[in-house]
Amino acid sequence: MVRVLLTALLIAACPWTTAEVATAQTITFPGGIPPDTFTTRVDIEAPPARVWAVLTDFRAYPIWNPFIYPVKGAPRPGGMLEMTIHPGTRSIPYQATVAVVRPNRELALRIPSVKIVEMTIDFTIEPLRVGRARLTARERHTSVAGVVAGGLLRDIQSGLDALAKAARDRAELLQPVPFRVPMLRYTSWTTSAMRRSFARRSPIGGRQRWQN
Length: 212
Description:
elongated, single chain, Alpha-D-Glucose-1,6-Bisphosphate, Chain A, domain 4, about 35% strand, seven-stranded antiparallel sheet, about 210 residues, alpha+beta
C-alpha cells in the first residue's frame, strides 16, 4: 500500500518519465513512508555565542562546512541568500530566504518551492551549562516525493550529521586561549643579583648612571 501511494505521488508531482519513476519507486522502506524532517544533534564545548558566530559567518562556510557552501548574503531577517547544498556527490544551488534570526538561539533558512519541494533548514542552540551548548540541525520538506525520487534520503541525513560535527569542531577550535602574564619567580640567586645591580648605581651630577 505504501509503495502504491508513493508511486502515485511521484507520477502526479514529478516531471520525470514513467521509466524514471519506475526506477525510483523500487526503493523500499520497511518503516513506511520516510519522514519529512531530518534531525541531528551535537553537544559542543563552547558557549552559545561562539556557536552562533560560527553559524552566521557565511564567508567561512567553505572552510569548515561540508554540506552547505558557499553562501552569499547576510544573516538578516528577510535577507536573500544564494547557497549550494551538497548531498552526497551532488551540488544543488538554491536561493533561500532568512526566515528566523534569534541571536545565540535560532537561525532558519527557507528555500521556496522548487518544483514540488519546499525546504527549511534551521539551527537551534540550547545552552547546557556555562561554556557548553547543544546544536540541533534540521532539514524539513513539504513533500518527500522529490527527495525519494532523487535518492537523497541517506545523503541528506549524512550531510546534516557531517555539518553538525564540523560546526562543533569549528566552535571548539576557535576557543580563545586566556593570556597570562608570566610570573617571575624570585630565588636567592635573582635577589642577590638584583642587589648587586642596584649597588652599582650612584648619583653623579644629579643623574643616575652605571659605574664601570
